[in-house]
Automatic annotation (TrEMBL):
<dbReference type="Pfam" id="PF17746">
    <property type="entry name" value="SfsA_N"/>
</dbReference>
<dbReference type="GO" id="GO:0003677">
    <property type="term" value="F:DNA binding"/>
</dbReference>
<dbReference type="InterPro" id="IPR041465">
    <property type="entry name" value="SfsA_N"/>
</dbReference>
<feature type="domain" description="SfsA N-terminal OB">
    <location>
        <begin position="14"/>
        <end position="79"/>
    </location>
</feature>
<protein>
    <recommendedName>
        <fullName>SfsA N-terminal OB domain-containing protein</fullName>
    </recommendedName>
</protein>
<dbReference type="InterPro" id="IPR005224">
    <property type="entry name" value="SfsA"/>
</dbReference>
Length: 102
């Protein structure tokens, strides 16, 4: 499965600043996080929703975090629009994708 290095950081969604930026609360700290999805996500990214972040590796980025998942009533929903491509690449490389495994 596609893993995010360094682990997931739980946070609360506060606001969507623009198409690519969210304001999140990590403990008592309010921070900006990148959203790798230009969709509206209006039903997913709601105020107070638990989200999961990863820490950015690039020190030159505008944000230290990226929003990866949202918790909707116990179901984790990906807001990372690039995850499908990475998953398919990994499954095909490991021959774990059933239609192509033989």
């Amino acid at each position: 499965m596609v893993w995010y290095g360094g682990g997931l950081i739980p946070a609360r969604f506060v606001a969507r600043e623009n198409r690519f930026m969210a304001k999140v609360e990590i403990g008592r700290e309010v921070a900006l996080a990148h959203i790798q999805n230009t969709g509206r996500l209006k039903e997913i990214l709601t105020v107070g929703r638990r989200v999961y972040l990863i820490r950015a590796d690039n020190p030159n980025r505008k944000t230290r975090y990226t929003v990866i998942l949202a918790d909707i009533e116990g179901t984790l929903v990906s807001v990372d629009s690039g995850v499908v491509n990475r998953m398919l690449h990994e499954y095909l490389a490991d021959k774990k994708f059933p239609p192509f495994s033989s």
